[in-house]
Amino acid sequence: MVEQNPMTSRPARRVAIVEDDGGLRAQLEGILSSADGVCCVGSYPSAEKALQGLRKVRPDVILMDIKLPGMSGIECVARLRDDLPATHVIMLTVYEDSERIFQALQAGADGYLVKSSPTEVLLAAIDDVHRGGAPMSSNIARKVVRQFRQFDASTDETESLAPREREVLDLLASGYVYKEIADQMGIGSETVRTYVKSICKKLHVKNRLEAVARYGHQR
Question: Which residues contact 162 (CB under 8 A, 6 or more apart)?
Fold first, then answer.
């Protein structure tokens, strides 16, 4: 597919699609082609074809269907991790069961959205994951929190969070992306990122998913 370059103040996010449903694939292509700040650099109906093409186009973000004919999206993500370490992957699926969610995350996926997500949520997720976030649909985020509640967490660590940090973490646990959190709290997206960095430092975790897990254990 021909790369499109909207007139924006920053380089367009280069996005690729891996989806076997032709209708949905075309719909996603249309969303990307009409949105500012993103462009479609590849569209594939199977994991096998994607593995051939993605290594060449090296997208910033991949929208990956979890259930594909032949090789699954989860296996495809695992195979791409070494070849495309800087590429972020958002799984798109109709499935919300915990087993598939954690298999995808363990394989290297960075986010997990249901296919019924509104266009604005999808576009926000692309921007968020490219900036280092881990966007998830709210129902999926709640499943992640419940699953991680089995992990031990220090009460002192979570109690060390400031009220605004707890507010940010609560919104993260509900599946909100940085921009949505910023809008709700009346602050800038960069301020949200500063809060998240502070939260991760206080909870002694590497990223916001682990922070959500520890916080969920104490809720």
Answer: none
Single-letter residue type at 137 = S
What CATH architecture is 13-135?
3-Layer(aba) Sandwich (3.40)
| 174: CB partners within 8 A, 6+ apart | 138, 141, 142
- Distance of alpha carbon 14 from alpha carbon 43, whole angstroms: 12
Contacts of 176 (CB under 8 A, 6+ apart): 138, 184
Q: What is the pTM of this model?
A: 0.66
Domain residue spans of the chain = 13-135, 150-218
DSSP-derived letter for residue 11 is: P
Nearest to 117 by CA among 109, 105, 125, 106: 125
User: What tens digit of pLDDT does each residue of 121-152 get?
Assistant: 999 999 989 888 888 877 777 777 666 655 54
Q: How far apart are the first and last CA of the chain?
A: 46
The two structure tokens encoding residue 196: 């998240």
Helices (H) and strands (E) in the chain, counts: 11, 5
Tokens of 74: 């989860």
Secondary structure letter of residue 96 according to DSSP: -
Where do we find the tokens 């996010």?
13
Nearest to 153 by CA among 92, 107, 205: 205
The tokens 């949200």 sit on which residue? 192
Q: Class of the 150-218 domain?
A: mainly alpha
CA separation for the pair 183, 185 (Å, rounded): 6
Helix (H, G, I), strand (E, B) or coil at 161: coil
